[in-house]
Specification:
- β8, α9 and β9 form a beta-alpha-beta unit.
- α1 runs parallel beside α8, α4 runs parallel beside α6 and α10 crosses α11.
- This protein has 13 helices and twelve strands.
């Protein structure tokens, strides 16, 4: 079985934890976020603050003000809501070097239901001035993102999933800040995806290939800053765009891509695969993905619509 993203994250924290500036804070869910791996290796720099997300994020500001690099951990829905005031005041407005890692993003906390699902966090965090927003798609990218966050000065939001995802990159892969990656070439349409939807888009591409549709797949793991040049290039070269995200279609990756196309005056068909202004119920992860239109079949359907509109 593939390694889960939370396991990859916990391992990366421990791997890079030799940097004495690094501190890790958790809101009593280290068994879920797997930050306990760092805590076991570096107990003197690990702080379980209890179920106090707002206080935890404010504590991180204090660490950052003293030259530390705090990694703040909880479920993404609570970091982007209960922790938002401190993130906005100290990370965004004050520019402190805070790293917020939102675990169990999207619908991946499947059985805990709408109170724990995170379908609006990208829109919230993307709107904070100065914040970078990264959504990794596999363990290789998670490792890179942790290393990048440790090196990059300034506030950053890292959105993680609970589960394993389809492998996308080999161990030798490298990434450029603020730049997406074409992970599959195609000329008939482009799917621009992030997180688990990159793997789903690759599965959709295999299905569509049997129908003669050559699909390009782009991993836009930097949701902010977004790779405007790559978006425009794909629109011009393939003539149709589909955005795929484990998030509401309002304000997240799809919104970012739409803003880029609109600002450049590029009028190509743009279809969305994401949650349609709704919360999601409890259930098995795969069943939720299917019901709310964020699996490979839904992506393939969106591509077919985009290609028909193109013609």
């Amino acid at each position: 079985m593939e390694k889960t993203l939370r396991a990859a994250y916990g391992e990366a924290l421990a791997k890079y934890g030799g940097d004495e500036r690094m501190v890790v804070l958790d809101a009593d869910v280290s068994g879920s976020t797997l930050t306990g791996m760092f805590g076991k290796a570096y107990p003197q720099r690990f702080f379980n603050v209890g179920i106090a997300e707002a206080n935890m994020t404010a504590m991180a500001a204090g660490f950052a003000a003293q030259g530390k690099i705090p990694f703040v951990n909880c479920f993404s829905v609570f970091l982007s809501s209960v922790g938002l005031l401190a993130a906005r005041t100290y990370g965004s407005y004050s520019g402190l070097n805070m790293k917020l890692a939102g675990a169990y993003g999207g619908l991946s906390d499947s059985f805990d239901g709408p109170t724990h699902h995170s379908v609006e966090d990208l829109a919230v965090m993307r709107a904070l001035p100065g914040f970078e927003v990264i959504v990794p798609c596999d363990p290789v990218q998670v490792d890179w993102a942790v290393r990048y966050a440790l090196q990059k000065k300034g506030p950053l939001y890292l959105r993680l999933s609970r589960d394993a995802m389809h492998p996308v990159y080999g161990k030798a892969a490298d990434f450029e800040p603020g730049k997406g990656k074409i992970v599959r070439e195609g000329a008939d349409a482009t799917v621009i995806a992030c997180g688990m939807m990159v793997g789903e888009a690759l599965l959709a591409a295999q299905e569509l290939e049997q129908e003669g549709i050559r699909l390009r797949v782009v991993d836009l793991f930097f949701v902010k800053p977004v790779d405007n040049a790559l978006i425009l290039r794909c629109a011009e070269e393939t003539g149709a765009i589909v955005t795929a995200e484990e998030h509401s279609v309002i304000g997240g990756l799809g919104g970012a891509v739409s803003e880029t196309l609109s600002a450049a005056g590029i009028g190509v068909p743009h279809e969305f695969a994401g949650l349609s202004d709704t919360h999601a119920e409890c259930g098995p992860y795969a069943a939720l993905m299917r019901k709310y239109g964020i699996d490979a079949a839904a992506v393939a359907g969106a591509v077919r619509r985009a290609v028909r509109r193109k013609r």
